[in-house]
Amino acid sequence: MALYEHVMLARQDVSAQQVETLVETFKGIIEANGGSVPKVEYWGVKSLGYRIKKNRKAHYSLLNINAPSAAVLEMERQMRINEDVLRFMTIKVEELEEGQSAMLQKRDRDDRGDRGDRFDRPGGGDRFDRGGDRGAPRRDRPRRDDEGTETTTGAEA
After folding, report:
1. Which of 34, 41, 132, 133 is 20 to 30 Å apart from 103, CA to CA?
2. What is the residue range of 34's domain?
3. What is the pLDDT of residues 98-122, one digit of tens each?
């Protein structure tokens, strides 16, 4: 059997419990067709990069699937019919990821506040505060006037 990672986006106006029900329905389709779903992750409601069917946000869910291709095709067919599913993507992989996905690791890191704020780094702070004196403008370079000819500055004259 082949291994797949499947990401599903559900409408923003359905509840998280309804999304869980949807995932369980699709998981049942996979299992009825001889496959298994070893891991399901709910990533939460996130903003979309662009509007999809008048939605600006969506519920994201990840399913790791170990199933024959016929089971995945049947699940995708059912997703196309369901009005609550905005988009989905299934990718065939060599091996399934163990532990949390990168999205859940990022969310945990953000919740703990381990974002590596620039204030913790040496020289951190306001990004416009470059430190040091910029000094006066350089006057030893020739400047071009409106006609394109070089003119000398007061320091050279």
Report:
1. 34
2. 2-99
3. 877 777 777 777 777 765 555 555 5
